[in-house]
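## retry 2 of 3
previous attempt timed out at serialization; input unchanged, resubmitting
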Amino acid sequence: MNTIVEGIVRIFSISLLRYFLLAGIPFVIFYLLFPARLKLQKIQQRYASRKDFIREILHSVQSTLVFTVIGVAILNTPIRHYTLVYSDIHDFPIWYIGVSLALSLVVHDTYFYWMHRLLHHPKLFKLTHLVHHQSINPSPWTSYSFHFLEAAAEGGVLVLITCIMPLHPLTVLLFTITGFIINVYGHLGYELMPRWLRHSWLFEVINTSVHHNLHHRKFKGNYGLYFRVWDRLMGTEHPDYVKEYDKIQARRFNLNEDKSQVPLGDLC
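## retry succeeded, writing output
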């Protein structure tokens, strides 16, 4: 028992440090050092308050603890024997690390979409998801700002993926880091995507910061995490998304709205 507690304390400390680095560095850059220089990239022109940031950080610390307990339970207790986690990295080809990471993100996106839609049921929303939606104008600190019950549901994806596919602990680590970085971008409050993305096939597949920011503003639609696929298949993508994205990018790159619809080759 002491070993498990020590593991929780150690991993919680590391995870908390990761949270403050991966969310804190973008916050310092975009909100403290260069907000004026980067204002054209700001999705909502107003800013959240200091009170909002403090609330988000406190909830995020709580969520980090919940995620830590789930991770330790899976990797460092007898529960591991019921999963497909493997210890020897040579049990599978090295390239499988990358493949399993990509598959984990696909599974996570599917899990998140349906869990997220469920949390928007009126009763569940008031009980849990309302905490996250207090951040109408999200910032990097919003990324882990969940009610503890929602944090448990969010962390449940780790149970799912370790039970349906073989994963090395390194892949689990990469999954949590990659997912969090994308999550921070989704809540950043600034759009970073390059100009060429709009007229590429990638735009039809992946989410952007505008995509998730619109969900925080409107509360409905745009339930996906990494990809647009489920929202488009289920008809839940907000009808204003592409228009809002084009408006932000037109402002960033000094394009008028007509030009934002012109193929990239015609703009160069």
